[in-house]
Backbone:
């Protein structure tokens, strides 16, 4: 019995790594899904241009992106096949959010935020002018990332090349995403930049004309007052002379 028990214990101990490898704990599976499939892609700050694939857990598909070469994450695959092999079938609801385990106490790793539509964004978060009317900015970096921006003058999305840094929020990965966020979402007519300049110049000219008109009116009034004072002085002198002549005749 002792020998048999020893052999049984040895078998259990020796097979433990195998069991853990093929049946990892739930927390390990959740962490693996999070790190390799549920996090968003990261281009990184470097300026290289490596074609890579990442798993979009919201769409449930592998999508291509350009990796800068550093500061990436594990959701970064060389081929689409490798991406699908690792993450195919993983969705936002495949495993409970990492913030809540089975007993509701596991909060060691934050969960992936659900993608929000612009309709769900509060007005103080989604700024139409910031996300849709700003001009396309390539930036000073020298990478070459194809992006889309919303052109308010054309009321449609157009493509441009993003350098990789110091851009703005009017920069989207696809035309569909750009149109979804910006097309038909303005709450009031947005004037193009050129039109704004013309309007401002027109207002400035109008204000200048009003000021010049007011100045001319003031000058005319001052001139009339001076003329009236001069005439009053002349008439006053004539009356004094007539009075002196009358007094002389009387004497």
Residues:
């Amino acid at each position: 019995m002792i020998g048999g028990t020893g052999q049984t214990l040895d078998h259990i101990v020796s097979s433990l790594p195998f069991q853990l490898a093929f049946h990892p704990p739930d927390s390990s599976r959740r962490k693996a899904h999070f790190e390799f499939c549920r996090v968003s892609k990261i281009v990184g700050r470097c300026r290289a241009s490596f074609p890579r694939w990442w798993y979009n857990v919201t769409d449930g598909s592998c999508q291509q992106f350009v990796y800068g070469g550093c500061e990436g994450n594990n959701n970064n695959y060389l081929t689409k096949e490798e991406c699908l092999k690792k993450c195919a079938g993983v969705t936002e609801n495949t495993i409970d959010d990492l913030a809540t385990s089975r007993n509701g106490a596991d909060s060691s790793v934050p969960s992936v935020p659900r993608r929000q539509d612009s309709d769900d964004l509060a007005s103080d978060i989604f700024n139409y002018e910031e996300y849709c009317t700003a001009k396309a900015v390539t930036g000073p970096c020298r990478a070459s990332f194809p992006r889309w921006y919303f052109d308010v003058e054309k009321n449609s999305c157009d493509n441009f090349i993003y350098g990789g840094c110091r851009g703005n929020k009017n920069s989207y990965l696809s035309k569909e995403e750009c149109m979804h966020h910006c097309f038909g979402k303005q709450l009031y007519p947005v004037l193009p930049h050129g039109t704004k300049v013309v309007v401002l110049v027109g207002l400035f000219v109008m204000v200048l004309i009003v000021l010049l008109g007011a100045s001319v009116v003031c000058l005319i009034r001052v001139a009339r007052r001076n003329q009236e004072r001069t005439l009053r002085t002349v008439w006053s002198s004539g009356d004094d002379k007539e009075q002196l002549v009358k007094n002389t005749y009387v004497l």
